[in-house]
Design brief:
The chain is mostly helical and 98 residues long. 43% of the residues lie in helices and 0% in strands. It is extended, with a radius of gyration of 19 Å.
Length: 98
């Protein structure tokens, strides 16, 4: 949260110990690989949002997690709270559209 609000150099000046990787894009090497094996039944989705959109989505997800109904949604074995909150929002939207 601090990294999103303040510059790391400013935090260092204030005496907060911050960690910054010393890697450049090409320094990562070619040895990266994901583990083999079954990933089912879970998937990871990535979205690109404008800053305003991202904040709106974060706020909506946080608000959903505060609802009593959220405690009773079908998680399908998913322990990721943000994924479950997004599923809740989409399922509510679909229910209103049909």
């Amino acid at each position: 949260m601090l990294a999103n609000e303040w510059d790391a150099e400013e935090l260092d000046e204030w005496g907060l110990d911050t960690w910054q990787p010393d890697l450049e894009g090409d320094d990562l090497g070619d040895e990266f690989s994901l583990p083999d094996g079954e990933k089912e039944p879970f998937q990871s989705l990535t979205f690109t949002l404008a800053d305003g959109q991202a904040e709106y989505v974060r706020t909506a997800l946080a608000n959903v997690k505060q609802l009593e109904e959220f405690n009773y949604i079908e998680t399908m074995g998913n322990s990721n709270q943000n994924g479950n909150a997004l599923y809740f929002l989409v399922s509510q939207w679909v229910a209103q559209r049909t």
